[in-house]
Amino acid sequence: MLREFLARVWRRLVEHVDVPLLLITVAIMVAGLATVFSATYDANNRLLAQALNMIVGLGAMWAVAQLPPQKLMRFGVPLYLIGILLLILVYFFGIKVNGARRWLSLGFTRIQPSELLKIAVPLMLAWYFHKHEALLRFRHYVIACLLLLLPFALIAKQPDLGTAILVGAAGFYVIFFAGLPWGVMVGLFAGAAGAAPFVWTMLHDYQRKRILTLIDPTTDPLGSGYHIIQSTIAIGSGGSFGKGWLAGTQTHLEFIPERHTDFILAVFSEERGLLGNCILLLLYLLLIGRGLMIAAKASTLFARVVAGSVTLSLFTYVFVNMGMVSGILPVVGVPLPFMSYGGTALVTLSVSIGILMSIHSHRMLVRT
To answer: Is residue 22 classed exposed, middle or buried when 0-12, 13-18 and 19+ CB atoms within 10 A define those classes?
Structure first.
């Protein structure tokens, strides 16, 4: 009888869990935890904190996976409105750290509202397109762009260009999967290219310096070019098979900046080498491929555009982080999914995987 009870409990726990997604995600998390330990060998409290973050993230993933897509859709508008309100509060009352106002104090803790928009924006836009699916017109795409532009501008104003790019990308992917005409996309890209000189004048000095440093990091080797130079040295010194776990000299001599967060890939590359990087890249490709399969098999517009947006947002995370660590993109402060230390981003990404599991396991009609 106890065996039957335990069997029912187990079936209930795994009922809406997509095993391939879970296994791939956990594999990357374990690799990340080992790398965080190496990067923070003198601060074991961070290892315990990251392990707790993983448990919370997996719990959030499971909880979201239990919700059918029609319930997820109902969260779109409230989450979006709450996120916009919190961003406005951050603008007026936020905590300023290192020249950026991104955090809101709640007394007992502080939150970063921009993380909420990574989930709220695609849910909101997917709800909007689902609502008008039968009569989609050009004006609907214009309104969707305005809905996306508002949080993008508020986040970029903090300034937090990295998060603004991720939120903007997540929203754009929804608009793209909703059927944005190619002619409009070409016009948007042409307009963006034409506006580039004006955008350049609006960037902060440190942001312009990061872009210029990308062209030649040696022009400021101890300043804005330091991150890129040290990370590329660490990646190259790993060779084919790496120096071994806990044996990275660039890491343990503290040459790599932000080695447990944004530049954790440099630590991993030095210790695991080219072979480790190929395995890690394969895991990300499998994760992204699984997400695209779920999006392709989705039965409703809402499910399809949300799954596609979540999956390509994950791709954007990986591409931007690997690009900036290897020196082919400017440094914008984007973590490596499930590898970098940090609770907020890890939970947000776990919720995204939970959304994919929900869409895959609840293949039913989504009602407004």
So the answer is: middle
Asked whether residue 154 carries a pLDDT value surpassing 50, the answer given is yes
Is 80 exceeded by the pLDDT of residue 246? yes
E strand or H helix at 96: strand 95-97
Q: 365 phi and psi, to 5 degrees?
A: -65, 130
Range of the structural domain that residue 251 is part of: 19-367
**Rounded CA separation 319/340 (Å):** 14
Residue 11 placed within a domain: no
Query: Under a CB-based contact definition with an 8 Å cutoff, are residues 212 and 225 in contact?
Result: no
In a domain, 96, yes or no: yes
Per-residue model confidence as pLDDT tens digits over 309-321: 999 999 999 999 9
With 0-12 / 13-18 / 19 or more C-beta atoms within 10 angstroms meaning exposed / middle / buried, residue 188 is middle
| 361 neighbors 65 (Cβ within 8 angstroms) | yes
Number of domains in the chain: 1
In a domain, 190, yes or no: yes
